[in-house]
Amino acid sequence: MIKKELLQVFPTPILIVKYQDSLDKEIKFVEKLKLELNGGDNRNYRTVNSYILKYKKLNKIKKFIEESIKIFSEDVLGYEDEFYITQSWANSNPRGSFHHAHTHSNSIISGVFYLRKDKDNPPIFFNKTPDTGIQPKSKKFNTFNSGQLLVPINQGELILFPSNLNHSVPVNKSKTVRLSLSFNTFANRLGDEKTLTEVIF
Asked: 26 vs 112, 114, 138, 146, CA distance in Å?
């Protein structure tokens, strides 16, 4: 009999957290914010203000996001440094729009909070950066051989992920506008004093 031990080396964590309160007031507020086109061919929009979580009317959502970041950074990633939200903005994806594949520079943890997303809106699409041009045929897909992942998200859910994880939004073929709130974070400190890598901000 063959003895075997399977190790999952360097997995990428993604955390989904559910917001429990009503979003009616927040949705109405965000819908009134001024938008600008976010790229020519994408046909999607984002708020002109890229610090919208500083608005008092979004304080409850901000507190929820900050608590979730703490859970993700401490309980999942095992970090002891504190993280704070840097920029935050809303995305509006009407019918026919999409969001190109991208990562978030100058950020450690990024997230998307779904203010309004019905079942017909597109999910978020994560894509692994290929390490090799070799692609054997798979008889079934799993976490080891898959390079792409579609994550269905519902209204009021927050998804947190490492900022360097490539992601996009497929074309919205529904009649409903996909409305979300995105943000970046950074740490109040990096490195460690004993290893001579410490940077305090």
From this structure: 15, 11, 45, 37
- Please say whether the beta carbons of 77 and 156 come within 8 A: no
In the chain, count H helices and then E strands: 2, 13
Task: Give the tokens for residue 190.
Answer: 């990096």
> What is the rounded distance in angstroms from the CA atom of residue 59 to the CA atom of residue 56?
5
pTM (predicted TM-score)? 0.92
Nearest to 180 by CA among 128, 124, 126, 127: 124
Query: Tens digit of pLDDT per residue, the chain (201 long)?
Result: 899 998 988 889 999 999 999 999 999 999 999 999 987 788 899 999 999 999 999 999 999 999 999 999 999 999 999 999 999 999 999 999 999 999 999 999 999 999 988 888 999 999 987 666 777 888 888 888 888 889 998 999 999 999 999 999 999 999 999 999 999 999 999 988 999 999 988
CA dist., res. 126 & res. 194, Å (int) = 36
